[in-house]
Amino acid sequence: MSDGSSIVSNVTTMDHIIHAAASRGMDPGPLGAVRPFAQAVIDAGHGADNIARLTRHYLDNR
Q1: Fewer C-beta within 10 Å: the chain N or C terminus?
Q2: Each residue of 13-41: b (16+ CB within 10 Å) or e?
Q3: NADPH-dependent reductive aminase-like C-terminal domain location, by residue (predicted)?
Q4: Which residues pair with 50 in a beta bridge?
């Protein structure tokens, strides 16, 4: 599953948005909720996969 940008790349972007929102007193909302889940996917060895891996990981681990 390597079409598109990697989860690692997407998480880097998430981190920037979460930090920017928090530094302005804004709630990062869904990104803040998805970020730990994305880290679990990376920790499971799928960081190079595209963001669709989050769905697969969720379905496999619910």
Answers
A1: C
A2: ebeeebeeeeeeeeebeebeebbeebeeb
A3: 3-56
A4: 6
